[in-house]
Structures are given as structure tokens and as C-alpha cells.
Amino acid sequence: MSGRELKKLRAKNKLTQKQLAEKIEVAQPRISEWERNKFKISKAYRKILNDFFVGLTAPNV
To answer: Helix (H, G, I), strand (E, B), or coil: what is residue 61?
Structure first.
């Protein structure tokens, strides 16, 4: 997941950087750094982000 993809997913789900940061338990500046490609998203956080966004789009059963 690139920073651009993260920003698109966050915006599509109407989340602020602060809201996303709180959900995945990181500091808000880290979200900004990822979105600007200042820091690469680690494998661990790519998985956390993927699981988070998949959970938002999964149908409620």
C-alpha cells in the first residue's frame, strides 16, 4: 500500500488522519508522513491497515 492509496482509502471512508490514527493506534503525524511518502509503511502496518479497511467494507452478516 502506498501513501497515495492510503489517502484515497481514508478519504473514501470519510476518516480524518486523527480518526484513522486512533483506530489503528498510531500518532496522527505518522499517518501524514505515510500519505506524503515521507516514511514507508511497514509490513506490519500494511497488514493492520488492510485488515481495518477490509473490515469497513465487509457486509454485516
So the answer is: coil
Cell numbers standing for residue 7: 489517502
Give 28-47 pLDDT, tens digit per residue. 999 999 999 999 999 999 99
Query: Measuring CA to CA, which residue among 51, 48, 46 is closest to residue 34?
Result: 46
Residue type, 45: Y
Long-range contacts of 4-9 (CB under 8 A, 24+ apart): 4/35, 4/37, 6/31, 6/34, 6/35, 6/41, 6/49, 7/35, 9/49, 9/53
Domains and CATH numbers, the chain: 3-57 (1.10.260)
- Give Dmax over CA atoms of the chain in angstroms: 39
